[in-house]
Every structure is written in structure tokens, then in C-alpha cells.
Amino acid sequence: MKMPPGLKMAFKLYYRAEWVKFEAEGEKWMKKLEELLSDDSAWPSLLEAAQRAENEVRILGADRRRAEETLVGLQTSDRTTLGAVALNSGGLWIDRGWLKVLGCGHDSIAGDLRSWNGLGPDPLDLEFEPEGYVIAAYDVAGGFFAINNGAFNDRTPNVYYFAPDTLEWEDTEKGYTDFLAWAMDGDLEQYYATFRWKGWQDDIRALQGGQGMSIVPFPWSKESRDANKAVRTPIAMTELWDRQQEMSRQTTKPR
Questions:
Q1: What are the Cα distances from residue 175, in Å, to 96, 106, 160, 169, 229?
Q2: Which of 30, 95, 193, 197 has its CA 20 to 30 A from that of 11?
């Protein structure tokens, strides 16, 4: 059952007020920005990898204030690949925007590392909030990539993929750094062969920044068929996330 809009707004306002208190208290134990900045940032090597990548990589511009707030929210150094992406980019568009890696936020991408994962005063309006993992990327077909933080019966911080055709989280057996390397140089055409249709490049070019594609029949349904015969409609990525998470809870067994 979905929460009534009025009640949801009340909770959202309450959350913002509590977050202000949390930030004030958090100063006692959270690392400050200067403690997270390094002379050995992972960004130069990541930038070099993006420039020589097999797949098209577009680095979205970063607002410095938002970038610093994102780094502090994540509590990770820019020595890490995740921290470097958060501090130096609004996000990454990969393979003409089919795959989008979250950064500190940009108009061309849905949300950011803080808002998707509830790490600030303005979280996305999600019915199903991430728990035990950090959403780090998504694709326009409704797949989501998340870094494990205890949710998947495994303590390793591997990246897991929420597949829209199975509605299950699948271990990529890659950490975040290796995941980005795969995204830049891997065979995405083969990986997404069952989801892509003829002319997908033109269709996704017309999408707004926060949108993906609703595919009907749904990829997880028995009626799912050739991607070229499916009906595709632009949809907000937040709505696509909630719809798939709700269906996942109805159709899959507990982990």
C-alpha cells in the first residue's frame, strides 16, 4: 500500500528537520571535507581511462559545493574511485547515455549519490529506499547497479546488478573500480542484447535527464518478447525503481 501524498510530505518535512539535527550531531564523529581530500586522488587515472575507453564516455560537469557535500555525505576519500567520481563529476554518461553512473548530480541524470541513498536533507521521493547497499548507477531499461554494504549475504563490497528481467540482484563479482572499467571498456552491446531495440540510440537521445524507458510487456513478465516488438514509453527513473521493487517483493523469494 502506498503512503498518502499528505502523509508522505509530512514525513519528508520531518526527515529534513531531523537531518539538520543529525548533521549538527554528526560533526562530532564525521570526517570533515579536508580529511577526505587527498594529494593522491583517483581522478587522474579515471580521467585517463575515460579518454581511452572503448565505449563512449561523457563526464558531466560538477558543481563544487554539491560535489564537496556529496563527498562528505559518502564519508569516503577522493583516493577511492567512488570518492573521485563524487567530487569531480555530476555523473558519467556511458554508451550514448544508456548507462549512467551517479556523481554529485547533473540535469542530464536522475538524482545523485546523496539523493538516491538518503545521505542528505533532500532524498528522492522513493517508496522503496535503499537499505544495505549504495545505488551507484542505472541504465535506461531499468537496471540498477549498487555497491553492497551488507544487504546481499556477503561482506565484500561488490557491485550488484538489479536485473529488470529477473527482478533479482545479481553479483557482478566486481568492485566499484572494476565495474567502472567494465562500463568503459566492456561489451555493453552483448550485455544488453535482450533489452536493446533497433534505433535505441535515437530514442534515448530524446529522453529527459531523469527518465528511462518503460518496456511493455514488462521484461520480467511471461509475455515479454523481442525488444523490437515491445512498446516503450519514457518514465521517471524513480517511478521505474519503485514499480520494479514492488513487483520484486511480490514475485521473488527472500534472500
A1: 23, 24, 9, 15, 35
A2: 30
The confidence score (pLDDT) of residue 9 equals 47
- Sort 183 into a burial class: Cβ within 10 Å, 0-12 / 13-18 / 19+: buried
- What the block records as the C-alpha cell of 136 is 551507484
Query: Is the distance from CB of 220 to CB of 243 less than 8 angstroms?
Result: no
pLDDT, tens only, 35-65 = 999 999 999 999 999 999 999 999 999 999 9
Q: What stretch of H or E contains 235?
A: strand 231-236
Q: Where exactly are the structural domains of the chain?
A: 31-196+237-251
pLDDT, one tens digit per residue, over 157-181 is 999 999 999 999 999 999 999 999 9
Distance CA 200, CA 205 (A): 8
CA atoms of 244 and 149, how far apart (whole Å): 21
Cis peptide leading into 217, omega within 30 of 0? yes
- For residue 152, the SS3 value is coil
Closest to 81 measured CA to CA, from 183, 188, 190 = 183
- Indicate the CATH number of 31-196+237-251 among 2.60.40, 3.40.1350, 1.10.10, 3.40.1580: 3.40.1580
Label residue 142 exposed, middle or buried (CB < 10 Å: 0-12, 13-18, 19+): buried
